[in-house]
Hints:
2 domains; Rossmann fold
Amino acid sequence: MLVRHLSLVDFRNYATAEVDLEPGPNLFVGSNGQGKTNLVESLGYLSSLGSHRVSVDHAMIRAGQNAAIVRARLEHEARELLVEVQINRSSANRAQVNRSVIKPRELPRYFSSVLFAPEDLALIRGEPSGRRRFLDQLLVARTPRLAGVQSDYERVLKQRNTLLKSARAQGLRGANLSTLDIWDERLVGLGSELIAERVALVGRLHPLVVDAYRSIAGADHRPALGNRLSVLAAHPDADEQADDGFAVPEGTTKESLSREKIAELFREGLTRVRRQELDRGLTLIGPHRDDLVFELNGLPAKGYASHGESWSYALSLKLSAAALLRIDSPTGDPVVILDDVFAELDEARRKRLAIAVADYEQVLITAAVYDDVPESLTPHTVRISAGTIVDPSVPFPEPGEEDAT
């Protein structure tokens, strides 16, 4: 998969932007705050329908405007596609492929990318919601139909929570909650599929993470990852360090924890926590309460890993996602995006990372300092200044000059 041309209208600080891209590495360079990350953020949005920087879409619309447009001309196996999304401030977003209208949630089936940015340190150190989002976006990139399953699950979860809140307010119990049993079955059906897919995905990722971590860090710190499933918790508020069977070993697969077994555990869990759910008006178990567990040298990475180890682990996760998409995605290699990564790495890690991404069809890199990026990744360099693509005929500034402007 290649991006041949990117076009933006009223996206972030760009009134308009037209950027030609080449196969292999493409470097966007410019001082901080000029708009480098905005370019790659737009492509990340096309493949994931989300931003790695903000949680609301309207933040990506240029100030004073009602909509932003991201349009990309893609190439895969000599076939070209024109994909477009219009992000609206006060109405539903719209999407097109080759000028034909599609549902925005269908965009990831046409374009695949994996983006790594400093914000991804939160995968290791942050809240479970970020780790769930990482898994779910990768699931959809590999199997686009799961976007519908995720959407249906969220809808059922919202309806069930509304019923629980109503029951709490009215003091209903037992036989008066037969409607809740119906929503339980829908929740179990959809939720069990998502849990089973996540468990299988983590099983596929584990050996790839081990290899990627060694290639980046230059050492084997025995990285391990596994699922933490709320349907296995003895108590809905079990602490993440509690040894209560909450964690599923990294080698667990669909075969060893089948969807049918998960559904059975899910039903049992809902029965077990029914009273707490009615008291709190909230669904306490399910994929929306699960987590992804990381270890280094047999210890939880969260709380024990150093800054450098956390950085290497987060980068390894994204490289492993790219490797898995390369194997599974019908669109071939994902576009690998490295946003402001090299400034955080020492020279040895920079060289190892350059080697790790060298054979991907297309790699997009942003950097504030040109010399931070290994020479092998700089053949096609685009300079950015104040939301403008600088004419390539303009001489490159001497070190320190651009920062002074």
